[in-house]
Every structure is written in structure tokens, then in C-alpha cells.
């Protein structure tokens, strides 16, 4: 098709049909014309062939016309390998074939999208993230591809993020090139370097967008919908930046799970809190609500906790992904599962001598765990005794309503895999 290879046709009768596509059948209409030209079938049968191409049972329907096609080709002197090759081309379109009108529309969209992706990769990524869910590629795949092409993607930020993803200056107030309409009118065309499909494209010479970064939006955080994100941004615009986590709760009324989701996403890094510290503070901050009396929340000095390493972040994401997909792991206070769904309870490890947080690879144990293991067995509708260890997450949560030394929400207990939590004053939760 580039002139480097000779154009060939399976049979001279097909040259008028395939001439404009250089001998290669591309459209469903061409397959209909091929069948009529060499197979001797009429328009109705050719239309049946077209409808068979878009059917889930397309190959079976096309096979029903096989004898008629071979009979017609034999009448035109087409037999043997030539007939088989023509039929193979027709049969291949049963898997996937475009109508010509669809192909032209799709090609126009691909051409425009490719131009935007080359010259405005940051804006292109932001637009795709705003349009989710779209199918095809997940947001994670889109972000990873943009990073491979030199786009800096920044995590959600309490003070800077909008509702949705949007381009952001690499350095505040400093553009590295023209932007907006002016960037589209620049002349000449920016240079485009050599293409290497196996190497990341980090060159910015061909970018017209001033090499923007992309700031992820608050609405993309799990449990934070568009309305909640709009409220966060509106309060920030009306009353200024948030001073701390409690200030966010007082102004927006976010729930404990929502604050914890923001903490897990790193939204509070701008307040000087890493993810562990932010998760620790989330439960206390969520109690600071305007409808409650001031000063009734138990306030203690926040601990100094080490930040999560890259390996720990990866493990955390994998754990959440498996949980979302229905992974049924044993309860934290259970040993390896037994046929009845739960192993024998683990004996709680001894806490450290001093009260400062210390790292431990073991799951945290304490009064909350004891309260769970001491729950009486109960009888199911089938008369079987149900061990407390095999309860669902919702049932186990009800046993943690009042704790001393343990966090009382499921999201906080995730961190118990990384460090021991010392006892502290009891906090009544929902």
C-alpha cells in the first residue's frame, strides 16, 4: 500500500472491487461485492452475508452459504486454492469487519485524537479521565501511558485539585510555551523526533501545550462523588484554603470513610501529613462536626509515624483490589482457614514495654481483638454453630463499637499490618 509491494488481486474479477483499497478488502460492502462478483449470488443473499458478519454466530451463517459460493465460483472458472483463498477472506470478516461509513467516521476520530495526543498530551489525558467510564482502557492504563510519554501526573491535593482532572503548570505561573488558541496557530509545526515503539517518548519539543502537568481531581477518589468534590472546592473558593483535616469536616460534613479515602489517596500531603498519619487523624477529625458541641472529642497528640514505602503502598493497593473483587481472607484474629471457614484464633502478641509506636510484621492485637474472639457462638438457620471468626466484615465491625487501644473502623485496621498501635483512650464511634 506504500508502493513498496506490488498490488495483487485474488482474481481479475475482483480488481474493480478492490482497486481503491490496493487489493485488500477493508469494508463489509466490499465483501458483499466480492461475493456477487465471483460467487454468483444475488443482492438479497449478499445482504444476508453482511448481516451474518455482525452476528455472534456469523461464522455459522456464512458457512451456510459456502456451498452456494463455491458453486458460483466454479461457474466463473475459480476453483482449487484460488477459491479457498477468496472464501477465507470472506470468512475472516465474520470475526470483525467495519462498514465503510463506520470506518470513515472512526478514522476521522483517530486522526484528530492522535493529533491532540501528540501536541496536547496533558489536556488529552485530562479529557479522557473526565469522560470515564469509557470502556477500552482503565484510568490506570491511561495515566501509565501518559507518564511514558513525558506527562507528569500529580496526585489529588486538598488545596489545589478541582472536581475533575485538569492541566496544571509545571511551575506555578510559569508557562514553558504558548497555550490555548495561540498554541494552535503557531507556525511552523513543532518538530517530531524519530519514533521508537519500544522506548518512552519523554521529548517535549512537539508539545504545543506548554508541557503542562495533570492534577487528578477529587471526584476520582473512591467514595468521593461529584457532589462532595464540588462542595470541597466551593468551600475552598469561598472561605480560603483548609487549615487542617478537622476544618475540612466542619465545612463539608464528610463522613469518616470519606476522610479515610482522601487520606489513603494522599490528599492531605499538602498539610504535612503522610498517608499513615492522615489515616490516624481521620477518625478524630471526623468527629469535628458543626452540629456537635465543641470540646467533646478526645484529643491526643498525634504520633510520629514513618511514611509508607513503595513496597507497602503496592501491597496496600493489591489488598484493596482483591477485597473489591470478592477476596475472602480469614479474619485478622484467625489462623489459616479450616474447612468450616475459620481457623483457630491466634493468641494476642504481647505489646511492647513502652507506649511509643513500634514497627511489627504481625497483625495488631489488643482489646478489640479480644472482644471479637470472646463473642459467643451462635446457631445458624441450619442448626450449625457459627464461629465468630467466620463472621462477615459488617458483623465484625459491630463488635468494635467501643475500643481502647484499637482503631474502630475497618479502613484504619488496614494499617495494623504495618505497625503496632499502643492503647489510648476509648472513643465512641458510630
Automatic annotation (TrEMBL):
Pfam families: DNA_pol3_finger (PF17657), HHH_6 (PF14579). InterPro entries: DNA_pol3_finger (IPR040982), DnaE2/DnaE/PolC (IPR004805), DNAPol_HHH (IPR029460), RuvA_2-like (IPR010994). SUPFAM superfamilies: RuvA domain 2-like (SSF47781). Residues 159-197, 323-408 are annotated as: Disordered. Residues 3-77 form the DNA polymerase III alpha subunit finger domain. Residues 150-278 form the DNA polymerase helix-hairpin-helix motif domain. Residues 370-383 have a biased composition (Polar residues). It comes from the Bacteria. Residues 384-398 have a biased composition (Basic and acidic residues). This is DNA polymerase III alpha subunit.
Amino acid at each position: 500500500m506504500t508502493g513498496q509491494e506490488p498490488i495483487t488481486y485474488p482474481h481479475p474479477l475482483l480488481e474493480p472491487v478492490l482497486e481503491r483499497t490496493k487489493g485488500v478488502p477493508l469494508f463489509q460492502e466490499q465483501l458483499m461485492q466480492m461475493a456477487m462478483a465471483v460467487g454468483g449470488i444475488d443482492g438479497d443473499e449478499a445482504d444476508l452475508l453482511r448481516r451474518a458478519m455482525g452476528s455472534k454466530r456469523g461464522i455459522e451463517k456464512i458457512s451456510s452459504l459456502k456451498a452456494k459460493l463455491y458453486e458460483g465460483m466454479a461457474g466463473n472458472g475459480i476453483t482449487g486454492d484460488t477459491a479457498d483463498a477468496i472464501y477465507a477472506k470472506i470468512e475472516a470478516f465474520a470475526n470483525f469487519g467495519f462498514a465503510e461509513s463506520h470506518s470513515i467516521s472512526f478514522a476521522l476520530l483517530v486522526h484528530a485524537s492522535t493529533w491532540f495526543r501528540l501536541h496536547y498530551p496533558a489536556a488529552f489525558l485530562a479529557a479522557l479521565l473526565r469522560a470515564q467510564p469509557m470502556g477500552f482502557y482503565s484510568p490506570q492504563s491511561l495515566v501509565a501511558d501518559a507518564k511514558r510519554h513525558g506527562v507528569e501526573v500529580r496526585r489529588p491535593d486538598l488545596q489545589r485539585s478541582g472536581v475533575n482532572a485538569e492541566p496544571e503548570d509545571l511551575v506555578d505561573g510559569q508557562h514553558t510555551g504558548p497555550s490555548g488558541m495561540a498554541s494552535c496557530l503557531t507556525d511552523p509545526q513543532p518538530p517530531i523526533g524519530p519514533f521508537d515503539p519500544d522506548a518512552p517518548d519523554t521529548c517535549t519539543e512537539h508539545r504545543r501545550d506548554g508541557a503542562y502537568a495533570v492534577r487528578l481531581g477529587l471526584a476520582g477518589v473512591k467514595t468521593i462523588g461529584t457532589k462532595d468534590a464540588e462542595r470541597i472546592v466551593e468551600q475552598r473558593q469561598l472561605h480560603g484554603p483548609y487549615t487542617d483535616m478537622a476544618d475540612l469536616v466542619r465545612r463539608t460534613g464528610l463522613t469518616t470513610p470519606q476522610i479515610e479515602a482522601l487520606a489513603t489517596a494522599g490528599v492531605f500531603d499538602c498539610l504535612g501529613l503522610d498517608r499513615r498519619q492522615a489515616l490516624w487523624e481521620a477518625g478524630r477529625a471526623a468527629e469535628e462536626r458543626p452540629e456537635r458541641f465543641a470540646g467533646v472529642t478526645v484529643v491526643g497528640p498525634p504520633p510520629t509515624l514513618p511514611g509508607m514505602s513503595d513496597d507497602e503502598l503496592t501491597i496496600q493497593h493489591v489488598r484493596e483490589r482483591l477485597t473489591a473483587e470478592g477476596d475472602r481472607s480469614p479474619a485478622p484474629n484467625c489462623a489459616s482457614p479450616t474447612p468450616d471457614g475459620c481457623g483457630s484464633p491466634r493468641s494476642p502478641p504481647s505489646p511492647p514495654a513502652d507506649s511509643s509506636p513500634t514497627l511489627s510484621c504481625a497483625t495488631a492485637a489488643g482489646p478489640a481483638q479480644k472482644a471479637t474472639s470472646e463473642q459467643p457462638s451462635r446457631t445458624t438457620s441450619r442448626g450449625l454453630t457459627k464461629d465468630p471468626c467466620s463472621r462477615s466484615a459488617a458483623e465484625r465491625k459491630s463488635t468494635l463499637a467501643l475500643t481502647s487501644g484499637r482503631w474502630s473502623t475497618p479502613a484504619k485496621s488496614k494499617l495494623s499490618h504495618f505497625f503496632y498501635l499502643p492503647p489510648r483512650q476509648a472513643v465512641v464511634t458510630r
